[in-house]
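Why show two proteins at once? Because comparison is the fastest way to build intuition. When a single record is shown, students tend to memorize it. When two are placed side by side, the eye starts asking what differs. So, the first record is below.
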Amino acid sequence: MRFIKPIVRLIQALVVSNYLHEADSAAVVIKIKILTIAVSLAFMLNSCFLKQDRTTTVYGTITDQNGQPVDSILVLVSGLRSLSFETLKEVYTDNRGEYELLVEVPKRFHAVNVGIPNFPQENPKFLRMYKDYKLWKNDQATNNCCTAIIGKITKYDFQLIPR
């Protein structure tokens, strides 16, 4: 908005001073074209500086091979930066097998991944009872695990495969 106010003042000044009623119509046309370009540029610059919403939501349900909810399974969201991942947020599934992660992704990360980690200390139930999982992204079966678009809402459902 800070780019628009000076341009509006300029247009008001031109109209008030009857500057647009010059005798030389060619000069007026050129000035109107320059003013149009300036206004367009101001709108483009203003939209470039708007803050991109980086709030990313990932949610879903974890079930067993029979479709029953599985509680106490750790799910985490990791940010990808260069070639390394950093955990941004983690949560355990509730007694309905549901989880939700709301993450404000810092600008230094260019992608986020969702997953069930194989950490013995943090995810013992998964390691003890399950060997893998099937995956659905936004209710579509997929083998392409597990990216979420920054600034969007993504649903990932996991069906755990027993040992």
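Second record. Ask yourself what differs from the first in the token line.
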Amino acid sequence: MSFYFRPIQPEDNPAIFHIIKQVVIEHGCDQSDYITDAAQIQDLASEFVSPDSRYWVIVLEASGQVVGGGGFARLPGTSLDDKTCELQKLYFLPEARGHGLAHRMMDMILSEAEAQGYETIYLECVPQLAKAIKLYESYQFQHIPNALGHTGHSCCSIFMSRPLHLESLEQRTPIEPSCCPTTE
């Protein structure tokens, strides 16, 4: 299978909404808690028009179907002086998993966030997304005790962050192939 990445467009909104909802259901997350603002998710493209935010979709080349996405934006509730962004809405349909796409997306997000002048990237997650947590840990995200900013994700109990520039560490550490294969 062949995939490509491109910036989100308004016509991608229904597909991304479907992907997020499907992944939330697949992993047994409470939809009413996890999808905090359905209106925002249904119009995700408009949430990433700011010059200091980005969101990309992953497209299955053969069919043109959007099969995943991810991005970053300024951490809600922080000032312009705060150089922290939030990793946002990183979701993949089953057919997009196991091809190394999560690693490619993470590399793009981290590189572009740093290029936009952010110094730290933060995320919130739920325990049910264990493979995603392993992915974040492989990219040197550290667990932190409390939430940052005002994301509105009341159901999330896992908080992680990392500096965007890591001089002394590899960008990411290898993880078990059974968790998240990186070959296409």
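One difference worth noting in the second protein: DSSP finds six helices and seven strands in the chain.
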